[in-house]
Design a protein that fits this description.
With 164 residues, the chain is α/β, with parallel strands linked by helices. The protein has five helices and four strands, in the order βαββαβααα. α1 links the parallel β1 and β2.
């Protein structure tokens, strides 16, 4: 029997990525949306999802969603405050060169890297380090997927999308 997941806020950034992850694990995925929800984050997987009109702030609509789906797992991706900005990151600093080197190590092609002076920034911060403490505090989230795996998945997604 296939496990069923219900994701509130499925059309948002976090909800849509969670839906992709769960679909990849073979779960049947239901998600709540509102009539005014933007759905561009889930358009590429919409045919694999079951969408239900419900609002997390309306207990009756959520109870109906639960009764309709009988989920094995419920993911409430709405603990964040509306309008707030949250960083989702590894909390580790990386240089552009180290990311480039990682990408280059994942190919069997000889690639020549050239800097285009017209695209270089005249000044930049030396270290850019994300702080996801606010997101962790609100949701209990923690980074579990290694950065290298994320880059590999991203590279493979582009390869698949471009047919290479």
């Amino acid at each position: 029997m296939v496990a069923v997941a219900l994701i509130t806020g499925i059309s948002g950034f976090v909800g849509s990525h969670l839906a992709e992850f769960l679909l990849g694990k073979g779960l049947e995925v239901y998600g709540t949306i509102r009539w005014r929800s933007r759905t561009e984050n889930i358009e590429h997987i919409r045919d694999k999802l079951h969408l239900i009109e419900a609002d997390i702030r309306d207990a009756h609509s959520m109870q109906n969603a639960i009764d309709e789906t009988l989920p094995d797992y419920i993911f409430a991706v709405t603990k964040c405050e509306y309008g707030e900005v949250y960083n989702i990151c590894s909390e580790k600093a990386r240089t552009i060169q180290s990311v480039l080197d990682l990408l280059l190590s994942m190919t069997n092609k000889d690639i020549e890297v050239k800097q285009d002076p017209s695209r270089m920034r005249p000044s930049d911060v030396e270290i850019l380090l994300g702080d996801c403490s606010k997101f962790k505090e609100k949701t209990g989230w923690k980074p579990e997927i290694p950065f290298e795996k994320t880059i590999e998945d991203l590279l493979n997604w582009w390869r698949d999308s471009l047919g290479v």
